[in-house]
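Please predict the structure of the following assembly.
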Amino acid sequence: MNLFYLVAFLSIFFSLLVIFSKNPVHSVLYLIVTFFTFTIHYILLNAQFLAIVNFIVYMGAIMVLFLFVLMLLNLNKDTEPMKSNLIKIAGVVAGLCLLVTLVGSLRAVDTSAPIVLKNPGIGLVKNLGKVLFNEFLLPFEVSSILLFSAMVGAVLLAKKDPK
Amino acid sequence: MESLSNRKKVLEQKPMSFMERIYLPSIFKGLAITFRHMFKKKETVFYPEQTRPVSENWRGMHSLKRDENGKERCTACGLCALACPAEAITMTAAERKKGEEHLYREEKYAAVYEVNMLRCIFCGLCEEACPKEAIYLDGPVVTADYLRKDFIYGKDKLVESPFKS
Amino acid sequence: MEVAFLIEKVVLVTVIFAISLGVAAYSTLAERKIAAFLQGRVGPHRAGWHGSLQPLADGGKMFFKEEIIPAESSAFLFILGPSLALLTACIGSAVIPWGQSIEVAGRVIELQVTDINVGILYIFGVVSLGVYGIMIGGWASNNKFSLMGAIRAASQNISYEIAMGLSLIALLMMSGTLSLKDIAAQQHGFWEGGYIWDGGYFTWNFFKQPLGFLLFIICAFAECNRTPFDLPESENELVAGYHTEYSGFKLGAYLFSEYINMFVSSAVMATLYWGGYNYPFMDLASSAFGPTLAAILGVVVLFMKIFFFIFFFMWIRWTIPRFRYDQLLHLGWKVLIPLAIANIVITGIVINIINYL
């Protein structure tokens, strides 16, 4: 349990650093560390497959793309677009709305009963695959079609008009 | 345009066949060629121990020659310095004193004779200009050094060592 | 956890670490020697017997060179880059089964640091993490060429990771497990079950998945940033790319991590496709010499396979010239990924037919 508190503290600490660091590249690097702490959380929950997929997909692919884009951008002080006060106020309002929603939904959940895993091996690949391809086959396939259509859409957007 | 010489060849680029497009056969061919090279004769010359044979008209470092009695041939006439296109040669003449006849052949000799090896282009014009057959570019390769001043070779490096009797 | 278990694991980790560092060090010599042989030269031969002390001389040189940190760079990230590269290169070998279990003083010792049930995915994770060392180092150098190298490394690694994963899925469909130990154990021996007309077959996965192996080895070349995919560090267009600004030991860490990556990926290839520690007639050997000696022979066989792959890496380097960047991405996205998907489909059909028969 102590390990959990340490890791939880680290993930909150690094996610705060993501917001407060001035340099966007540093911010992304802190985000990577935050994702790494999430991976440790998954391992603590005995969800090895989710942990390693989080590791590969989020840390290994998506954050590399983030870094890639940030390194390509010219991030000088004078070219920074987010300077108008209106945008700042809008951002604060949106963030507060999200916070209120999250707090409200968390209050609705009954967390008093400790959750006990009935099957400690539920996070292993074999069990996860069986669950995904038997009980949740339809949502799984639908989500794959959703991702595929997103990919096709991205390619279409990236292609220039032939005219 | 019409070719006048009639030697123009029109290259035809054929579309690649399937075997060519997957590239693997040509990659294996290339691998075989490079692998065969492992067993060929090695061309390496182990330099300080072995040296490559040089041709007869090879021009290396200068050497100031002595005559058959071991006297220096150079008379500091300055023709080599004059002939030098790179201005690499300087010298100071001096008069032979009594008792130095076994060292220098003529009454006049070069007290200082310096070749700047950074300037020298090893063209060999100094050899041709010398009337006394005193300078020849028959030495080894001029070696590398750290400082520019060390490339100005004086008589200590240039003069042929005396004959052993 | 008992003390003996801990000691066993610590010793195993230390030995594997030492071996991978030693192999990486001598890979630098082998690289130069093989380059020389393929070009009709003799290579380094002054330090020690036929240059056998050359890695020590190189290492000593790296240590004593001046460590330069560019004034306009971010110093912490500049140091973090090579450290991360070396770290991710070294931890990949943790899940590789180096041999069958051996018996020392009445204790059965597994020649594998840990057998996690997502072993292959762990290796993928480590490999995908490896690009951060290059990216962080290239960005922190504050140099245009380094940044170009870092960006090239990022896009190249992401592109080829997908093809690598897809090429492996066909293999995983056949083996039905993600654990490297089980995959190696499935390839027991060399030939299974009598003559070919009696249903005998090669046990090594290469003979079942030749296309998968081809795709995998191409992707392994790309992931290790080796020629013909060495665009992140191409000397003549990017002046060594992401490590332009590096000197001394930090440069050494980058170069070293490349060789360790090569070693680990050779080990992975040997384990996944070429039978790992398995060799023909290993049951005969086991009954003749006893299981421990046979297992040690298996380790030797695995290392022979690894050394062959390292040699193959170097052999390819002096055979195939570097790709252009658009050719690289074309190969990755338009050739390898469709081929890998086709391989998955074919494998699925064949497995179903075999199950049906």
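The first helix of chain B runs from residue 18 to 21. Chain B has five helices and five strands.
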